[in-house]
Specification:
Helices cover 54% and strands 16% of the residues. With 82 residues, it is an alpha+beta fold.
Length: 82
């Protein structure tokens, strides 16, 4: 799925929303964490995490495992349905 995001009048950008990006953001927000808090807990770059939530990039299995561990879910739960 792809959508346009408009942050302010006249400034829009295209964002590809993937099931994985939605899942990561949903789990992060369910814990009340910011992207910075999750990136620190998972020991991944905050910029990378931001891009993943925006549907950009192809994370490595190691990165996904670190994010899943930090979120307290299994890797299979993180990628279920992706």
């Amino acid at each position: 799925m792809s959508i346009y995001i408009c942050k302010r009048k006249g400034y829009c950008f295209f964002m590809k929303v993937t099931k994985l990006s939605v899942q990561i953001k949903r789990l992060r927000e369910a814990r009340g964490w910011s992207q910075v808090e999750l990136s620190r807990a998972a020991r991944v770059d905050q910029g990378l995490l931001s891009r993943l939530e925006d549907g950009i990039g192809n994370p490595s299995l190691k990165t996904l495992a670190a994010i899943a561990k930090a979120l307290g879910v299994s890797l299979s739960e993180l990628v279920d349905g992706v």
